[in-house]
What does this fold into?
Amino acid sequence: MKLVVDANILFASLIKNSLTAELLLSDKLNLFAPEFLFDEFIKYEVYILEKTNRSKEDFAQYLNILKEEIEIVPQNLITPYIERAERFSPDPKDTVYLACALAIDSKIWSNDKKLKEGQEEIDIITTGELIIKVGFNFEIE
It folds into this structure.
C-alpha cells in the first residue's frame, strides 16, 4: 500500500515500541514523505530522547533505518500541488503532506483527527485502520 507518512507517526514509533514501529518496517507498505520530514526528526531529537529510553546512538540507528524505508518526495514534485492543497487543508501544517499525497497519488498515514475529518480530498488512514488493512494480528495500540 502506498502512503505518505506524517511526522507524528514517526515520532510515535520512536517514543514507544509499538505496532507503529513494526508497520513502518513492513514490506506491505510503500512509504513516502516530503523532504523536510527527517529535518523535523533531527530538530526534535532532544525532546524525543527525553520521552524515551533510547540512547543517542539508538536514535541515530533507527533514523537511518527509517531513511532506508521511506522514499523522499522532492519538493519540486510537491510544489505544483501546494496551492490546491491549501484550498482544502484544515491546518497549514498539513498542506505539504496533502500536496505530497496529491503529487504521488496516495493516501496519508496519520492519526490526526483534524486532518482526517477536516477535508475529503485525500484519504487519511489511521494506525488502527492500517493494522486491519495489512492484516497484522496484534492488538491495536
Summary: The chain has a mean pLDDT of 88. The two ends are 20 Å apart (CA to CA). The first strand starts at residue 2 and ends at 5.
